[in-house]
């Protein structure tokens, strides 16, 4: 019996109900990697969901979530997949055919149902996306299906399409910070990085660093050329083309993009070597960096300590190593209380 004929509607229904055996699950997952099975799969999803619908639907909210999904914007309800530190896993993805109107309609209908809050594990984001995530204090390297390399900084997350990545699309979503080495494809397909904010980075083949956290968004370019698009409002956006050695920063207050030339673009991703480069950086700013990367809480005994600045290259393979170096440089007292660190000047009361 061929793999195509071995997966029936009844078997899929058993799978949706969580009653499939391990062998059946493996057979279905192998079957789903075949592009020609996609339409039948979504037909079964739609039919099964209609037969198991037992709650009041919030259609407006479902449509809103579905539009976010097809626009490629990040979805916060995801199931993260941990990546082993400094690992280099390979992931096999099979190309899928371009969606027909019928398949889009089926996908829309199926999405409407399970996005209404249907609490079954199978209908989580992992059906459509693969998510890579790093813990606090960890750096991980992955190779994408198209051959591009990505190094994720600590406390960061990268999401890619599970099916067709590298063939139908090379779009990823980033939360945190990552360094990209993008390969050029024979068909000149663009590689797109979406951030949590209204910023999009488009490239063909190049090396760059993207920082996207609550306190801001920055893009640093080493080689090649990238296009950065900033959505200033629903009706207006601004686009800039970056050259090597440039740093683009989003000004959230004035809603503008600021591009500047830097002397040492290699410092954009010094964190990959466990180094932190500071240039007249205040301890208040360093506090935010440490809290983002190591998941700790830092407090200053007074505002004068927070206003002190420091310049130089510091080794930071661990938070203790970096704090010790800063304490010696600025003559600080550092006291650790569980997961909280209190910093004061040696002359403080």
From TrEMBL:
Alphabetically ordered keywords of this record: Membrane, Transmembrane, Transmembrane helix
Pfam families linked to this entry: FecR (PF04773), FecR_C (PF16344)
Designated name of the protein: Anti-sigma factor
Occurrences of domain FecR protein (ranges): 131-227
Domain Protein FecR C-terminal: 275-343
Protein's UniProt keywords contain Aminoacyl-tRNA synthetase: no
Superkingdom classification of source: Bacteria
Gene3D superfamilies, per database record: 2.60.120.1440, 3.55.50.30
Parts of the chain that traverse the membrane: 104-123
UniProt-recorded Gene Ontology molecular function terms: sigma factor antagonist activity
InterPro entries, A to Z: FecR, FecR_C, Ferrdict_sens_TM
